[in-house]
Structure formats: structure tokens, C-alpha cells
From TrEMBL, chain A:
Residues 73-257 form the Uncharacterized protein TP-0789 domain. It comes from the Bacteria. CDD domains: LolA_like (cd16329). Residues 1-22 form the signal peptide. The keyword Lipoprotein applies. InterPro entries: TP_0789-like (IPR033399). Gene3D superfamilies: Lipoprotein localisation LolA/LolB/LppX. Keywords: Lipoprotein, Signal. The keyword Signal applies. This is Outer membrane lipoprotein-sorting protein.
TrEMBL record, chain B:
InterPro entries: DUF1302. This is Uncharacterized protein. It comes from Iocasia fonsfrigidae. It holds the Pfam family DUF1302.
Amino acid sequence: MRNRILLVFLLLILVLGTVVQAAELTGRDIMVKVDNRDDGDTRKAKMVMTLINNVGDKRIREVVSYQKDYGKDTKAIMIFESPGDVKGTGYLSWEYDDEDKEDNRWLYMPALRKIRRISGSSNDDYFMGTDFTYDDMGDRNVDEDEHTLLREEELNGYQCWVIQSIPKEIDEGDYTKKISWIRQDIAMAIKTDYYNEYGLLKTYQAKDIVEIDGIWTPKQRLMVNKQDEHQTIIDMTELKFNVAMDDNLFRTSMLKRGNIRY
Amino acid sequence: MRKPLVFSLLIIVFLIFAVNNVLAQGLQFDGFLESYYSIKLKDDHDFIGERSRFRLNLRNSSDNMYMFASLNGVSNGIIEDDELEVEIHEAYLEYTQPLWDVKIGRQIYSWGKADGVRITDVLSPCDYSEFITRDFDEIRIPVDSVKYRYLFPMADLELVWIPTFTEPVYPGDEDNPWYVEKGIKVNSAEEVENELGNSELAARLSFYLNGIDFSFSTAYLWDDEATYHKTGATFTPEYHRLRFYGLDLSKPVNDFVIRFESAYYQGKYFSADNNCGLLERDYVHSLAGLDWYPGNNWTVTTQLTNKYIFDYEDEIEEDESQTILTLNLSKKFYRETLELANMVYYETDERDGFNRISLDYAVNDNLHFLTGIDYFFGDEGEFANYDDNDSLWVKVKYNF
């Protein structure tokens, strides 16, 4: 009898502990988990971006991308391989987690043979005609938004946290709200709805999620703009994580090199 | 102009390397085909631009070597009577190591932070046969040269040796609508001989740091602008040596990028109304610019440039100080498939200028359709010379 009481007591502690732990997990905690998810210290990939307009016309951009983390900061270099009118265009960024610190960005335009410093503050601009903004492509600081855990639900067979994120400062043209479905087992957003003042703006989906070198990553990212019926599919190929990348790769001098070999 | 032996050998090495790599790995190629037509808005609406251009770029790499060559085929119905000219535009070999690289061959240089104005951008001469109405890629003339770069932890050092002088190109004769009558009898320009002592040397130290970029540059070069030596009633254009010291910087501040560029030129010969027709003076050419990226695919770029001649005398034909303002507004629409732009040059002293309104529509990834109006205004000054050349132009460009 004493043993049974002890067992019930222990089970009660366990259940209560779990409930308390779940209850204590805030929206911000979950987004910090997402932010801290292991995505490798370095990443190399070829991205094929397919832009599809409302009548089904396609435009394709191929980009080779290299990224390296420096703590919470990230340096990235991208070189366009196609189409012909942008081939050789290079984009270099040094992105800082500190929201008070402005990102550094440079653009290399092969027709002008010139590296140009561009403003680092327009993170809500769309990247090369795609449906992804610079913020969507990069690493938005968790504390730029107020995060609320709305509920837990299943999506595509996975248990998810549903998080609402509202920017602390909203400028003209910014999204006003985001609702994200975070896969609980790997702390990854597999769907995000973006809202602006007119309602649902666009929906992001992470597809074909695989484990490569111990790191979970989507091989396809899809962004569908609901308001102008335009969509962008980014297919990631030749994905490599934690490969050696010299710091010199992330210098403007590399934008002018004929090819980058790493 | 005859090219020296070293560059003939280089072309042979280049071809051997290229053929070897074609067989080993295959050559990558791309390029474009474009046609441009421009018609005068005044008088009898003559064509003042009628040209087609074919560009074939070839590239290949192997280990630490990279090779690039581009061939240009140009047919110009107005200034070349439709004769097809085929030439090697650029051709170079690049050898790279993590901390340095060297590039040998015919290549284009583009120094400085200015747009559409040359301040420290002194190495590649320009083809002004249609004034400034052509694209940068057409205006800039590649030079045979060797470029060595060393990457320090915080800076890049660039050393350039240009063994042969490449002349700029000006509107040749009165058949060219861009030719300006000088009212004097001019002999052909004296050539700069291909000899070691006539080489050009240049160096640039560039810093690309968190929140700021800046560069220091210097060069011992030939002045691309020939000066007219007076002998009796005739003038002979001659090229002279110049020393040059430059500084440029750009700094982003919120939605803006501030740019500054300045160059001190030592030993410039100016045309003058005296016995020999010349006066040697130093001058400084500076630029302050502001780029604004307000979002929504808007870009606003404004620049103020000033050229100031030291120890000025009234005999000098140029003004002591010349100021030019530029303003460029551009906006991209429909997922960057349509770009509307307006570029204005305005000379404040003469109150003349040039305004180009252009529209670039990407029909698809490969095909662009462009159109625009070029408008010159003012009564006196360099831009006013072309007051009759206001035009409507169209261009079709196919990239492959």
C-alpha cells in the first residue's frame, strides 16, 4: 500500500513537472530554440530559385552560396550563375545579431566591374525579384519581434508549436504579424504565414526536410505571395555543412575573382 | 598600334591553356547580342545611332588558374559604314592563392566610388565616339596590363603595370554626329612609343571594414586627354605624363550611403591662349555623393563634382572651377522586370546638361527591351554642344 502511494506520488510529480515545463515554455523560448538549432558553422549550397508569376511564367536564378557563422553573426557570399543578364553578380553580407548594429552589404556588378557598398538597413526589400525579403533570407534577431505561443497542433504529421510573432517596430511596408508552425522534434519552422495591413500576404513552407551530416535542413523552400499570386521555389542542391571555409572568402576581393574555389 | 612581344606571347600561352582546358573540362561560354537605334528629335529626324553588337565570353578554370576572354563583334551604321569589326575585348589569365592573385592580359579597370563620372578612375581610357550615350561596358577600353593583389588582414593592395599606352577614342570627323568642330587646324596626334620607359604604374590600397570602405591610390600615367601644341597656325595633339594621388570612401548610414572621392593631378597641360598654346598646372577633382535606398525598389543617387585648377591664369581656356551635379532616380516594378530611370548631368556654371530617361523591360530572363529619350540642354558648355542630338532610342538585348 505504501509502495502504491509512493508510485502515484512519483507519477504525479512527473506529470506535474511536464505540465509546468510545457507551461513555462514561452513563445520567445521556442523561437530561441529555433534560432539556436544546429545549422552548422559553415554552409555551402547551390540554390535554384524559380520565380513563377500569376500566369505561370517562370524565371530561374541559380546562385552559389557560402555562409559562415561567427558566434551569432553570419557572413555570406553569393555568386549568380544564371540568367545571363545577372551572371557574375556577387553579393556579400556581414549580418549581425545585435539589432542595433547595421549589417554590411556589398554588391559586385560585372558589367561595371565595380564593388558597390549598399545600405544595410532595408531588410524588408525583396531579394532579386523573389518573394523572399533580405530578412527572410537571413537571420532575423529573435528580439525584433514579440512572440506568443498560440497553441500546439499537428501539421503534415508532425507535432508543432504555433507561434505568433509581432514586430516591435513596424515601418511602412513591413509585415504586421507572422504565424509560424514549429516542428517540435527538430525546432524548425515548417510553415509561416506573413500578414500585412491588407491581411495574409504570403505563406512560407519548408519541404523535403532531410538530415545531412547530422543537420536537419529543407531541400526546398516555397514562398507563395497570396496578394499578387506570385511564388518562389528555392531548391537547395549540393548542400554541405561544416566544411572548412577560410575567412578570406568573405571579403570583397573575392567578389572580383574569376571563380571561388573552396 | 603594334603590341609588344610579351603580349603576343601571352595570347599564345592563353590559347594553349584554353585549348588544353577545352579538351580536359569543357569551356563555359555566354554573351549577348544587342541592337540599338537612335533617331533625332529635331530637324529631319535622322538616325544618329545605328549599331549591333555581339559579345562572346569564354571562361575556364583549372586548379588555381582561371581564364577569361571576350570577343566583340560590332557593326555601326553611322560612324563605321556598317563594317563589321571583330576584336578581342578582354583576355586574361588569373592565378590565385589564398592571400594573393595575379591577373595578366587585356582587362578593364574601374576604380573609385563615383557613378558616370571619372575622378580616381584613371586606368582604362574611354571611347567617346558617341559622347556618353553608350553603356559603361561599351565606353570603357580594356588595357594590356599586369595586376597583382595582396590581401592583408584588413586591406587589399593592388599593384598595376600597364606597359603600353592605349589611346582614348573621340568622335573622328564631321561625318560623326558627335563630332565638335574646334575651329583650328589639327594634325594627327603624336604616338606614345611602346617602350619600357613609357609604362604606366599604379597602386591602390583598399579597406573594406565594418561600416566604412576607403581607398588610397596613386599612379604615374599618361594623361588620356591630349593637349594641343601650337606651331604657327596648326595644332598637334600630344600626350603628357601625369602624377595622380587619390582617395575615395563610402559609408552607409541607415537608408543612405555617403560617398566621397578626390584626386590630385600633378603636371597637367591645359590649352591656353598664349605663345605655345599650353600652361602646366595642378588640379584637384572631387566628388561628394549620397545614395538613398528608401525601400520598395527605389534608388536615389545624387553627386556633386568639382574640378579646380591651382595657380589659375586667364589664358587657360578652361574655367578655374567647374561644377557638375548628377541626379539618378530609379524604380523597379513588377518583381524587377521593369525599371524606370532618369539620369541628369547639370553643369552649374554654363547651365547646360544632359538628361536620359530610360525604361528597361525584361520580357523574360534572356530578352530585354529598352527605350528612352536623351535630351541635351543649355546654350554653352560641353553638353550644349550636342543640343541638336536630342534623340529617341530603342535597344533590344538578348543574353545567352
